[in-house]
Amino acid sequence: MSCPHRFRFVTVVLAAGLLGGIAAGRAVAEEPVLQEEESDIVRLSPVTPHRVLVHDEAGQHARDGRVYVVDADAGKLLGMVQAAYNANVVQDPGGKAFYVAETVWSRGNRGDRLDLLPAYDPQTLTITNDQVLPGRALVTPKQNDLAVSNDGKHVYVFSMVPTSAVYVVDTAAHKVTQTVDIPGCALIYPWGNSGFTSVCADGSLANVSLAGDHATVSHTAPFFDPEKDAVFEHSPTRRPDGKTWFISYTGLVYPASLSAGTKIEPAWSLQEAAGLERPPAGDAPFVKAWRPGGWHLSALHYATGHLFVLMHQGTFWTHKQAGTEVWELDVSTHKLIRRIPLRQPSMMVGVTQDASPLLFTGDKDGTFYVWNATTGKLLRQIHHLGDDLYYTVALGE
């Protein structure tokens, strides 16, 4: 004879026991008091010649730009700081700080605009001063939008608010000490501790001498034709003495000693240095030849005077095409030292400034390549370091 009531009673008792056990288990699990977590800040080692900053424009989502801190010897990412929309980065020549010029809006993509120049501690990657700027040029990142004097006492910020001008920032006082108007001219090529030069629309240069809170501007005669053969904005400057090598779309190199009285030397040809014919300019735009191109297309090793230029085969208006080779040239003898074939085309080239220099390139997938700049041999690579690697900044550069 079955006993349904007894079965129901046993089931209820068992269920109650299980629930009680679970509840007891929960009580036991909740009894231990977790220790409070303590946060800390990891300090990186001091800046070395082979510890470089790599600017990532992140072009498909440019509000999320970044600056990577990379150990190029180990091929290792050490850290990262955010670099807002179309930012620029420059490093103190002694490695004491680095600066990121950036722009944000109060409502994300709209609202009140705020232009900033945060200074970062290179060992903790924390902001030591978050300076507000009167404005800055909000264009695609170019190294010559932001520059530093050779002693690190002044940062120069190119602005177009409302017209072309350069803000001179005192890095100790953290303030803009003066605004220098440069109508019809743009960008910053620093020389020494007392001035900079800008490129003008008519093919001339504007030289700005700084003395205290006073600025004197002088102009050179035009030396290139901006309609037929313009010079690249990313031409390299040796900041300590202001020697600059302006590279044209066809591959002419104009050596210039920048100062209050800038001197420009006769041009020489990259292609002729390599034993090739000099290609025609914009009046014969469809002739295919080896030409310079890319974004940050050239870099200079100060001590040796070795110039590294991205080169590709193309017509005149292919000046933004990625380089398939890096040509290494001696700026004193105007001779080609070597041609370095790249595994993947690169839009940027960079070099360190020590006695055992490293060379850097990148590809469209954001892979970062490290080369021996003395032998031209590939040493290592960091796969997909970022999205759009625009340029590098090395100690003393």
TrEMBL record:
Record-linked Pfam families: Me-amine-dh_H
InterPro entries documented for this protein: Host-pathogen_enzymatic-act, Metamine_DH_Hvc, Quino_amine_DH_bsu, WD40/YVTN_repeat-like_dom_sf
Keywords: Electron transport, Oxidoreductase, Periplasm, Signal, Transport
Signal peptide: 1-29
UniProt subcellular location: Periplasm
Domain of life: Bacteria
Matching Gene3D superfamilies: YVTN repeat-like/Quinoprotein amine dehydrogenase
Primary subcellular site in the record, as a coarse category: periplasm
Family: Belongs to the aromatic amine dehydrogenase heavy chain family.
Protein name, per record: Amine dehydrogenase
Source species: Acetobacter musti
Organism taxonomic ancestry: Bacteria, Pseudomonadati, Pseudomonadota, Alphaproteobacteria, Acetobacterales
